Structure formats: C-alpha cells, structure tokens
Amino acid sequence: MAALEEHGLAHGRYQVFHRRHSDGRTVFCAASLIEPGTFDIARMPEEEFRGLTLFAVLPGPVEPVQTLELMIATAAGLAQCLHGVVQDSKGVTLSQQRAEAAEG
Q1: Which residues pair with 80 in a beta bridge?
Q2: Vertex 25 angle, CA 81 and 35, to 5°
Q3: What is the pLDDT along the chain (104 residues), one digit of tens a residue?
Q4: DSSP letters for 11-24
Q5: Contact of 87 with 94, CB cutoff 8 Å
Q6: Which of 22, 19, 54 lies closest to 37 in space, CA to CA?
C-alpha cells in the first residue's frame, strides 16, 4: 500500500488504486493481478500480492500518449520499489524499446 501511495495512487472506487488528474478524474488504475482484482485496505498489511495490473480507460483526462507514458513510468517505479518486473499483457518483459514502440 505504501508503494502505491508513494507513486501517487489512492485507494478508491471499485476497491482499486487510482492515479487522479488535477480535476479529480481517474487517469489510470492499479488492481491486484489475482481475481477479483480488488484491495481490502484492512487486510493489505498481512496479504501477499503476486502482481499488479495497471490499466486506463481512453479517452481520459489527458492525452492517450501522456497517459501511457505516466502509466509506464509508474509501473517502472513500482517494480523498482517492490523488486518486480514490468510485463505486458502476455507476460513478456516490457523493455524501454518495446515501451517506446507502444507509445508511437
């Protein structure tokens, strides 16, 4: 929970973490990789999470490319903080080159 909050995410609607725009709208979310994907704040300190999934609904409050850049930067920061790796939806490690290709 501390890592998520440190990276600008706050627990909110649907029991997932949200990165909010200055106008209050959600830019992207972080959910547990394990079904149902939600976080029970009261139980988080004693639970183990095998992964996170970050996702955005587009169009959103910022341009799609900016959303993707922010989401990838946040994922990289979380991975470093939590000693994890960033992967795409197929489980392939997301290299800087692949991330740049996705943005283009």
Answers
A1: none
A2: 55
A3: 999 999 999 999 999 999 999 999 999 999 999 899 999 999 998 998 889 999 999 999 999 999 999 999 999 999 999 999 999 888 899 877 666 666 55
A4: E-GGGSEEEEPTTS
A5: yes
A6: 54
